[in-house]
Specification:
Helices cover 47% and strands 14% of the residues. The protein is α/β, with parallel strands linked by helices. It binds one RNA strand through helix 12, helix 15, helix 16 and helix 18.
Length: 403
RNA sequence: GGGCAGGUACCGAAGUGGACAAACGGGGCAGACUGUAAAUCUGCUGGCGGGACGCCUUCGGAGGUUCGAAUCCUCCCCUGCCCA
């Protein structure tokens, strides 16, 4: 049985940055309840980069809420654009992929996305299905629906244009292609990050042109990365992947700046507005230590992806390594053929450093410890007649033995 | 098609014949400190070499001038702006 529209709206709006237009969404929800017809909720994804992170999870979680409300979630895999790639050659964000690669990536994507989504209530569509066969005639009719000035309104186009950075003509076509996805599945609602506003609005525009009722937009805030400034992205290297192992996920979460604790609680740990307000208040009054708050948020996020048990273990492990400066409990074992060799060689062969120069630098800076003892002399030779525990900094540790 | 301005390391950006493996900033890594992989301070940040020095590779690409080129010349490729 469907929940009343007003209650549904409350859930949908919770945590959303923006809903456009609100009245239309309410009207759609009311009609949906009245006619017992679920709404089609669209989320597009780019299969050229199948590594999902906590930033993606913000939107995925919103889609999941729609699933729980009984609506129809449609995941659009943008395989068409992925197989075309980005011919400008300057952007590495859209490498050209073969059809098989795209399919493989899509599988990986769905696998990761269903850590958040309910797999049994998920429809998956590939947009090559309807984009592949478009004719030039159709394309021209479509492009006539939008002026250059309108295109240049998009924030990043405007910025790049103003700064004299190149904009490929094909880039203008991507928002239109995305809009056609909405037409193809007759989307009632499209989800995205706030950076997708322009593209999703284009969906409304083109749907109207195609004689359809325009979709509503539910825009989610963009989660900052672990550096605390830029939005989380793979290219910025400030991301926490959904597939990161528990201890790594926990560690990365502990490294976020204090100012982001509540935001992560809300967006990444999916805490309710009420919970978030409470935590904020406790932090403000000093009733809760920022470190403890962060550990709590981290545990909750790790638990969501890996379970309670793993979260507890990751928290303990973190204290062990960083609070009590002990060795991690899981140290990878590496077997080398030699019984004795220079430290520099040892570090390189064990894969703990990428070059001999780097090895020397680390040794000189006192970052290298063998069996807990700091090595300062880079000409030293190390015997492997027994197992050695070799550490480069706190995070690169290996058990090395001869074999 | 013409004119002008550009292309430098992971990114941004100096450098216009030797002192340049290339300033500076960001990022990254490490050390100290700490509640943390936060903040702060310090160091490192092309590779190779038993090494405060030497060698090799690098400044859009290919040639050339020179004892010596990121820097000068020729051709080519790429980007932006203006004109057509």
């Amino acid at each position: 049985m469907m929940q009343p529209a007003s209650e549904q709206f409350r859930i949908i709006a919770d945590g959303a940055a923006e809903i456009l237009p609100e009245e239309e969404l309410i009207a759609k929800l009311e009609r949906s309840v009245r006619e017992r017809r679920p709404l089609v909720v669209k989320l597009g994804c780019d299969p050229s980069r199948p590594d999902l992170h906590l930033g993606h999870a913000v939107v995925l979680h919103k889609l999941r809420q729609f699933q729980e409300l009984g609506h129809e979630a449609v995941l659009i895999i943008g395989d068409f654009t992925a197989t075309i790639g980005d011919p400008s050659g300057r952007s590495h964000t859209r490498p050209q992929l073969s059809l098989e690669e795209t399919r493989q990536n899509a599988r990986t994507y769905v696998e990761q996305a269903t850590k958040v989504l309910l797999p049994e209530r998920l429809q998956i569509r590939f947009n090559s299905e309807w984009l592949e066969t478009i004719t030039l005639r159709q394309l021209i009719t479509l492009t006539a629906q939008c002026t250059v000035a309108q295109m240049l309104e998009r924030e990043d186009f405007a910025r790049r244009y103003a700064q004299g950075e190149p904009i490929g003509l094909h880039e203008f076509l991507y928002p239109l292609a995305q809009a056609l996805d909405s037409v193809a599945i007759r989307a009632d609602i499209e989800l995205g990050g706030t950076d997708q506003r322009f593209n999703l609005l284009m969906g409304r525009h083109i749907q109207r042109f195609s004689g359809q009722e325009p979709q509503c937009l539910v825009l989610m805030p963009l989660l900052e990365g672990t550096d605390g400034t830029e939005k989380m992205s793979k290219s910025a290297g400030n991301y926490i992947a959904l597939t990161d192992p528990p201890e790594e996920m926990f560690g990365k979460l502990m490294s976020i700046p204090d100012s982001l604790i509540v935001r992560y609680f809300r967006l990444a740990a999916f805490a309710s507005e009420e919970e978030a307000r409470q935590l904020e208040e406790e932090l403000r009054r000093g009733h809760c230590h920022p470190r403890d708050a962060k550990a709590m948020v981290a545990s909750r996020i790790v638990a969501f992806y890996h379970g309670e048990e793993a979260a507890r273990w990751a928290a303990e492990e973190f204290d062990r390594v960083f609070k009590y400066h002990q060795l991690p409990s899981n140290i990878p074992e590496i077997v080398l053929p030699s019984t004795e060799l220079p430290v520099v060689e040892l570090l390189v062969q064990a894969g703990l450093v990428s070059s001999r120069s780097e090895a020397r630098r680390h040794i000189q800076q006192g970052a290298v410890r063998i069996d807990g003892e700091r090595i300062q002399d880079w000409t030293a030779r190390i015997g492997l007649e027994r197992e050695r525990i070799v550490a480069v900094g706190k995070r690169r540790v290996a058990r090395i033995r001869h074999g």
